[in-house]
Amino acid sequence: MEYYSLGKQSPNVNFKTAAITGQAPDKGLYFPTSIPQFTSAQIERFKTLDKAILAFEVMKPYVGGTIDDASLQQICAETIHFDFPLVPITETISSLELFHGPTLAFKDVGARFMSRCLGYFSKQARAENTKPSTVLVATSGDTGGAVANGFLGVEGVEVIILYPKGKVSPIQELQLTTCGQNITALEVEGSFDDCQAIVKDAFMDAALNDAYNLTSANSINVARWLPQQLYYFFAWQQWVANHGDDVPMNIVVPSGNFGNICAGMMAKASGLPLGHFVAACNANNVVTRYLQTGNYEIRKSVATVSNAMDVGNPSNFVRIMEIMQNNFDHLKNVLSSYSYDDIVTEATIHRIFKTNNYILDPHGAVAFLAAEEFNKPAIILETAHPVKFPEVVERAIGETITIPESVQFLLDKQKVAIPMGANFSVFKSWMLNKGTA
Ligand SMILES: Cc1ncc(COP(=O)(O)O)c(C=O)c1O
Question: The pTM is what?
């Protein structure tokens, strides 16, 4: 298996190079040269297969021999080492809870897989005496925590996280700033966009690239994007156990950059018998409008209460079009999209808490609304625990949310972050003088 650039101007690479470099030299996203096809006998076997073995079998073709089987088995087992329960909310809508990982977010799966792959490749780099990887990541909250936790203690990989001062929730900040070891948090005096601009400049800077083997850990990296397929397999296992084969499992995904839903569509394209996909969006609704009008019109993002979906130009949509062979009619048969404003989102958190005793996070609430509008049996992906968005959720339900036991230990930890101006030259001189260049 190789990967080609959707920019079409760069040579094909293997999984290792795609994972280490993140993006192709022509700035295109990498896409597999062929989508693995599971036979109906394999799919039948998948119904009851152990999760870790299933994960290994799904990921093996994508990794294409760049990681030996025993190591890949271990990477997969560690990646999915928590629960993915499908919990009924109403008679027709169930929630696939993707927040039972260490940082209470779906990103744990991608971050854990990617970190362990880079750890494996970094061991090879040490043996070959080449430079280890330095992961740079800008975060508005969730990505940083998942990446920090996923990479913590991974030998030979250093992680530097930039986050905007005062703009992440208390739990998110503790997740970012209390790891120590190979994880460094930079508290940037600016916005998320400032953090992202610094990271982008760093990837273009000759001196920094000379000193470090820089890697990004955002969702365009194949090693973060592709393992997201796994929980669609796990959801389907639970769905067929409850509903049998005849009721299609329709899937509503709260979408921003469209990496998550695109991973589900890859699973379907490889033979997993999934139903219809619905992309649930907030006011940032370029895809909703595209499906209605046929015009793909990117816009500047606007701030909403489901802020992880505040994306005006979804980077992974180009991959969805590639799966659909750029055929708009084909796309419309597989994918629908609805969008909602903040008022109805908060009202839905309140309503579902009162009527169904279920606490949705703002992203899950947007998905729930879309599932109601879609009006057929469906699952929604609950992408983060509501405790990660306490301001919105507590306002909506009128109660304090209990912090899950699994993260309570963070409350006793001391935040350690390096203050940094929102300025690339300050960041660059810090990088070049910090002692590991
Ligand atoms: C909680 C949450 N829900 C949904 C999304 C949207 O996922 P995607 O960007 O893959 O569409 C994100 C992305 O950051 C997120 O953090």
Answer: 0.94
